[in-house]
Backbone:
């Protein structure tokens, strides 16, 4: 399920992740992929937040989703990727059928050269208590 965002929304992307990052009691991030939109949700002791991105949003360059998928990721695992997000021009977000998350950041250096930073994260598995 690839998702690419356009560069005009870089500040919004960073603000979204920064606001999630600054929630001290936040323990996880939920990503819901629906055929018509992407929802990022956070849950913590301070409350819940949901951010919806329609498939035809100006922030989306490409959105492909064939079925509903819900994945949960620990914020402590996603936090290191925010440094690359702050420097990126575009971001590609992908998940596979197992819920593994791939974040690919397009970054331009001072000379105008393009490089990519990739970050992978496995989904959080809920442990069933006996």
Residues:
């Amino acid at each position: 399920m690839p998702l690419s965002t356009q560069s005009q929304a870089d500040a919004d992307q960073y603000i979204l992740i920064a606001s999630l990052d600054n929630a001290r009691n936040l323990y996880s991030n939920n990503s819901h992929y629906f055929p018509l939109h992407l929802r990022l949700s956070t849950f913590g002791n301070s409350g819940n937040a949901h951010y919806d991105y329609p498939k035809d949003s100006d922030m989306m360059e490409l959105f492909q989703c064939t079925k509903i998928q819900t994945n949960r990721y620990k914020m402590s695992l996603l936090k290191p990727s925010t440094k690359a997000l702050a420097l990126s021009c575009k971001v590609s977000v992908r998940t596979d059928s197992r819920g593994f998350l791939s974040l690919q950041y397009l970054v331009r250096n001072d000379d105008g050269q393009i490089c990519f930073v990739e970050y992978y994260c496995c989904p959080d598995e809920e442990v069933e208590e006996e």
